[in-house]
Structures are given as structure tokens and as C-alpha cells.
Design a protein that fits this description.
Blueprint: E1 2-10, H1 27-39, E2 46-47, E3 56-66, H2 72-82, E4 87-95, E5 107-116, E6 129-131, H3 138-146, E7 150-153, E8 167-178, E9 181-188, H4 195-207, H5 215-222, E10 237-243
Parallel strand pairs: 3-10, 5-6
Antiparallel strand pairs: 1-3, 1-4, 2-3, 5-9, 5-10, 7-8, 8-9
Helix pairs in contact: 3-4
Length: about 240
């Protein structure tokens, strides 16, 4: 059987996240239906990771096996002809039989986009969160983000009680501004549910002066979700890349 690896981009606005859910419109479910039409089977589609409802991707990775012998470029074209325009297969290749998009992933890169200003431009409404009021203190936010880098217990930055192991390694956390948009880019070996959005929400509170940069270390050590900031809205978050 051929093992096809897909790199996928999607606008997550109209979907209840990546993972298949009965009676819900999801990205995985939509791609799976297209694969059923092409293969006349129900191939198992493995995704590198879940994205929440409303979250986007520019580099989600998935794989599936099929007995059909279809050139990768033809498979990509066939999928894109069947998928809605808010989901696109960017790359398709045949990989080794043992490759699994989820279990072989070594890390991920996420980016959060925050529009700073009173009037959010219409074309950004689906792809950036908005913060109003006084400009955020970027230097304080960068200082606070420094405490998040390294191998830490991120219990304060998730609302998922199902995960017993909440230790993750953040390799880098960069913050910069271009025009009216503040970019947060974080790279790590894994992420808990809502983790990136809670980190960003907490950093926004730092930028507003409600939390000092040094308090970030105390929030981490406390392992208490109630001490961190709010969960930032989903539309600002993008899965940029999966690392192998």
C-alpha cells in the first residue's frame, strides 16, 4: 500500500477544528470524505495534531494509506478538485510505509496575529484577534515570554484535565510588530490544549501592565490555570509548520 503524506492549509473559520466529530463539520472529516470518493474506500487519515474550532493552518501534515497507484501530483489535484476552497492540499508525496504524521512529529511552530487598533480592517476579521486601547508594551511582553522558553510544566496554561504529563519544551518564543499587527511565534516539541492561546492571552495582560514580566515565572510554578490570563480568541492562531 502507498503511504501518502499531505501538507495542508486551511481557513478554520467554518470548522469545529481539525479532528473528526460526528455530526460536526471538521477539516479532517471533510478531507476524509474527499478521499472516500477518490479511493472508493474509507482510508484512515492521520493528522499531525489537533487545531481548535476557528484556528487556521498553513502547514498541517496528514497521511493515509491506499492500494491505489496514483501519482502524488494527480492525488493533490484530485483532492483539491473535491475540497472546498477554504481547504487546500499544498504538497503531496509518497513516503515510507511506517511514516505517521502524528507519532513521528518532533515539534510544531505556531503563530498568533493580534491587530492593535480601534478599527479592525474587514479582511483581517477572520485572521487576527483585536486589542483596543493604549499600545501594548512589547518589551515587557518579550521579557515575560522569556520565562516560557525551556522545558516547563505548563499546567497553568491549559484547561485540559485529561493530560497527566503537562511538561513541554518551548524552544523559542518571538514577538514583533509590523504595522498594526503584533506577531507571536512559538516553537516547541508539543503543545497542550489551548496552550498557545492562553500564553498569548497572558502576554497581552503583561502588555497592558496588569501582570508584570516577573510574575510569569510565578504563574508557571503555581501550576494553576486561574492565575494565567484569558484564552486569546481562536481566529488569530495559525499552525505554521510541523517539524520532523
Amino acid at each position: 500500500m502507498a503511504n501518502y503524506k499531505l501538507v495542508i492549509a486551511y481557513d478554520g473559520t467554518a470548522y469545529k477544528g481539525w479532528q473528526y466529530q460526528p455530526d460536526q463539520r471538521t477539516v479532517q472529516g471533510t478531507i476524509h470524505r474527499a478521499l472516500q470518493i477518490i479511493t472508493k474506500r474509507k482510508p484512515k487519515l492521520y493528522g499531525a495534531g489537533r487545531t481548535d474550532a476557528g484556528v487556521h493552518a498553513l502547514g498541517q501534515v496528514a497521511n493515509f494509506h491506499t492500494r491505489l497507484s496514483i501519482p502524488p501530483d494527480s492525488m493533490k489535484k484530485a483532492l483539491n478538485s473535491l475540497l472546498p476552497p477554504d481547504i487546500r492540499v499544498l504538497k503531496c508525496e509518497i513516503v515510507g510505509d511506517k511514516f505517521n504524521a502524528r507519532f513521528h512529529a518532533k515539534g510544531k511552530v505556531y503563530e498568533y496575529r493580534l491587530f492593535e487598533g480601534e478599527v479592525l480592517l474587514p479582511h483581517l476579521q477572520r485572521f487576527a484577534a483585536q486589542v483596543k486601547g493604549s499600545p501594548l508594551n512589547l518589551e515587557a511582553m518579550r521579557e515575560a515570554a522569556g520565562f516560557l522558553v525551556g522545558q516547563k510544566d505548563f499546567s497553568s496554561f491549559t484547561s485540559d484535565d485529561s493530560k497527566k504529563d503537562r511538561v513541554r519544551k518551548i524552544q523559542s518564543f518571538k514577538i514583533w510588530k509590523r504595522g498594526n499587527i503584533i506577531y507571536f511565534r512559538v516553537r516547541g516539541n508539543g503543545f497542550l490544549k489551548y496552550m498557545v492561546r492562553i500564553m498569548v492571552g497572558t502576554l497581552i495582560e503583561v502588555g497592558r501592565g496588569k501582570i508584570t514580566p516577573g510574575e510569569m515565572e510565578k504563574i508557571l510554578e503555581a501550576k494553576d490555570r486561574t492565575l494565567a490570563g484569558p484564552t486569546a480568541p481562536p481566529q488569530g492562531l495559525f499552525l505554521l509548520k510541523v517539524l520532523y
